Amino acid sequence: MRESPLDALYFLLPIAFIAGLIDAAIGGGGLIQLPGLFGILPRELPAALLGTNKFASIWGTASAAFNYARRIAIPWQIILPSAVMAFAGSFAGAQLAHTLPASWFRPIVIVLLAVMLVYLWRRPALGSIDAGRPLTRRDALLGAALGCGIGFYDGIFGPGTGTFLIFLFVRSFHFDFLRASACSKVVNLATNAAALVFFIPAKLLLWQLAIPMALANIAGAQVGTRLALRGGNHWLRRLFLTLALVLLGRLLWQQIAG
Fold first, then answer.
1. Are residues 5 and 208 in contact, defined by beta-carbon separation less than 8 angstroms?
2. Residue pair 89/155 in contact by the 8 Å Cβ criterion
3. Which strand (E) or helix (H) includes residue 11?
4. DSSP letter string over 80-95?
5. Cα separations in angstroms, 209 against 1, 35, 130, 144
6. What is the DSSP string of 124-147?
7. For residue range 43-82, what is the model confidence (pLDDT) as tens digits?
8. How far apart are the first and last CA of the chain?
9. Of 60, 49, 74, residue with least CA distance to 23
10. pLDDT tens, 221-241?
11. Closest CA to 64 of 99, 33, 29
12. What is the DSSP letter of 249?
């Protein structure tokens, strides 16, 4: 693979665009963008590639969140506490990321993903219709707890953060997939911001890549949100299940390969 960061843009810009598109629709852009960075620039410092990925991703996520907020009623009384606690949880998780190896978490995530897929498969109506029920203070507390837990997971391990957020919003608050996806972008925005609080002061970013990739991520996010809004819940459900299966397969392969 090419080693020059500027030459690498020929490969990374299309990857960032596709990652932004997929992430805006249903999450999981990191499954595309991060392996792309590591594959194309294998000699760069891994932490710098992680920081570059987070910087590019946060702009695409912010763009998607803005687009969704203009068209979908986001329950801010739940999502704002969830986002604040997700920021705190992600920051705390990042502090422990170097002391607790990822190998501890991978088997747990594999089991959780498998259970989630079986649960959704056996309930085809789940997430197809938004219940629209009144949200209570208990829901706000639950949202804050979920945000803290998912944020901690994102800070310390990370794969599938958006996938788990969408599932938990559908299951806990009876949102449809479209509304859950919109809400997940706001919370995911907070977890990405918490990571950048560490990466930027530590100068762990390749700015010559991060800025162009951020622009490509935004362009992809614009397309992704339009596709999601046009495709509706049945399309999003199928895409969600496909993404979860890909994530499960990737984690199983990593576990088996050691």
1. yes
2. yes
3. helix 5-26
4. HHHHHHHHHHHHHHHH
5. 16, 15, 40, 34
6. TTTTTS---PPP-HHHHHHHHHHH
7. 888 888 888 999 999 999 999 999 999 999 999 999 999 9
8. 24
9. 60
10. 999 999 888 887 778 888 888
11. 29
12. H
17 close to 216: Cβ distance less than 8 angstroms: yes
pTM of the model as a whole:
0.85
- Ordered by start, the domain boundaries in the chain are 5-257
The residue whose two tokens read 């994530």 is: 247
Q: Are 168 and 249 in contact (CB under 8 A)?
A: no
Q: How far apart are CA 85 and CA 165, in angstroms?
A: 13
CA atoms of 50 and 31, how far apart (whole Å): 12
All residues at 6 or more sequence positions from 105 whose CB lies less than 8 Å from its CB, including other chains: 153, 156, 157
Written as six digits, the tokens of 55 are 């910087």
Angle at CA 176, nearest 5°, toward 143 and 225? 95
Both structure tokens of 79: 């999502």
